[in-house]
Amino acid sequence: MTSVLLFALLLLIPVIFLLRRTKSSKRVPPGSLGIPIIGQSLGLLHAMRSNTAEKWVQDRINKYGPISKLSLFGTPTVLIHGQAANKFIFTNGGDTIVNQQTQSIKKILGDRNLMELSGKDHSRVRGALVSFLKPESLKQYVGKIDEEVKQHIQMHWEGKQQLKVLPLMKTLTFNIICSLLFGLEGGKQRDQFMKPFQAMIQGMWSIPVNAPFTRYNRSLKASARIQNLLKEIVHQKKDEHEKNGANSRQDLISCLLSMVEDGKQVLTEKEIIHNAMLVMVAGHDTSSIVITFVIRLLANEPTIYAAVLQEQEEIAKGKLLGEPLTWEDLSKMKYTWRVVMETLRRFPPVFGGFRKTATDIEYGGYIIPKGWQIFWVTSTTHMDSNIFPEPLKFDPSRFENQASTPPYCFVPFGGGARICPGYEFARVETLVAIHYLVTKFSWKLLSDNSFSRDPMPTPSQGLLIELCPREIS
């Protein structure tokens, strides 16, 4: 009899365990974590490269509802979207949700970059970056950006009949970054960055398996090379500052090195290097893609092109030959900036973002366990007809009164305390580039309108155009 009871008890133990497990995980969002490490990563990456990522997300929503679990880039993940999701992400502090990107981004950009920090560390580093990137500081750099744009157009556009826009825009934004952020003029030291930088950004969204011949492996090696180059620049500028009292505002690294509180440097050398890399990637990719898609749009919308041209010609008429643009000139480019904003609504450079839960948190009636990754698709609100009527129509007038757009619905630069500190920097280089391109050239597309995401939008054939110089009065 005793043996029978013992046997029955042994049978009940796994049943009780399963019942408890079911009960404890009852409110975890529906879905599947898929194959270990890989999960749904390959499916998402394939969808992005085939430009079906929105459909991929919608299929999950249709199957599991507005919140679901999956595994991305080696981490258990919950997918959320919409206005409520954007507000949830941008208003939650470090006690519940902390900054953490995918393992690949963290390893490539470094664990002390702003996207990995929370709480006081985030505030300290963000404050240091904003001191250089805020409008009051950027006003003095408009002329430098103007000079870089004019040099670029002279070297790569003038005299050309056909060209690919995106590679050239990446060259332009890379040179602007090297000049303003690192104080590197054209030449050997700047050229050393280009090849490893291009290799590094290719593996930003990749499965973190460090095996030979993988994108991730190549990106890690390129990241190490860039960090060593930046370390040389930091040491060089530190010596210059100590010997000559160099102007702390001449570039980002000099600015960060000069920031001292209570006799101690505000940022460590590691933080300066990791955040220089972050700004380098953010400023290079997003701005080059936005300018490229504006050029694509202007080729398809002659009425909008004519309105942008009229605004820019009015500004050009008030300038002497060769005189650079000023901050005041940029403030007059209101219609052009609305065109840029509408381009960002239709073709946001960033498809989605990541955070990590610091504790078990409740969202949408489910529990997101501590340590899980949150992947929120930032742009689904951009194409919501309840927020933006006729969302497929390109209409810059939507942004004549930005206060009319509900909060947390237009988020190309993030929101709340996490809004991109480089927002004004991106605005300046985008408007300066558009000014000179539309006043000097007209163009037509030689490639179709298709594009893929890798992970950012990449037009077919790099956006091949036929170029026609304009007569400048």
Chart the SSEs and their pairings.
Blueprint: H1 2-24, H2 41-49, H3 53-64, E1 68-72, E2 75-81, H4 83-91, E3 97-99, H5 103-109, H6 119-133, H7 135-138, H8 142-156, E4 162-164, H9 165-182, H10 188-201, H11 215-244, H12 252-258, E5 260-261, E6 264-265, H13 269-300, H14 302-317, H15 327-331, H16 334-346, E7 352-357, E8 361-363, E9 366-368, E10 373-377, H17 423-440, E11 441-445, E12 451-453, E13 457-459, E14 464-469
Parallel strand pairs: 2-10
Antiparallel strand pairs: 1-2, 3-7, 4-14, 5-6, 7-10, 8-9, 11-14, 12-13
GO biological process, one term: sterol metabolic process
Cofactor: heme
Binding site for heme: 420
Brief sketch in words of this structure:
This protein is of the alpha+beta class and 473 residues long. The protein has one domain: Cytochrome P450 (Cytochrome p450).
Question: What does the model show?
Answer:
There is one protein chain. This protein has helices at 2-24, 41-49, 53-64, 83-91, 103-109, 119-133, 135-138, 142-156, 165-182, 188-201, 215-244, 252-258, 269-300, 302-317, 327-331, 334-346, 423-440; strands at residues 68-72, 75-81, 97-99, 162-164, 260-261, 264-265, 352-357, 361-363, 366-368, 373-377, 441-445, 451-453, 457-459, 464-469. A 5-stranded mixed sheet has the order 1-2-10-7-3. Strands 4-14-11 form a 3-stranded antiparallel sheet. Residues 1-25 have low confidence and may be disordered. The protein has one domain: Cytochrome p450. Helices cover 52% and strands 12% of the residues. The protein has 17 helices and 14 strands. With 473 residues, the chain is an alpha+beta fold.
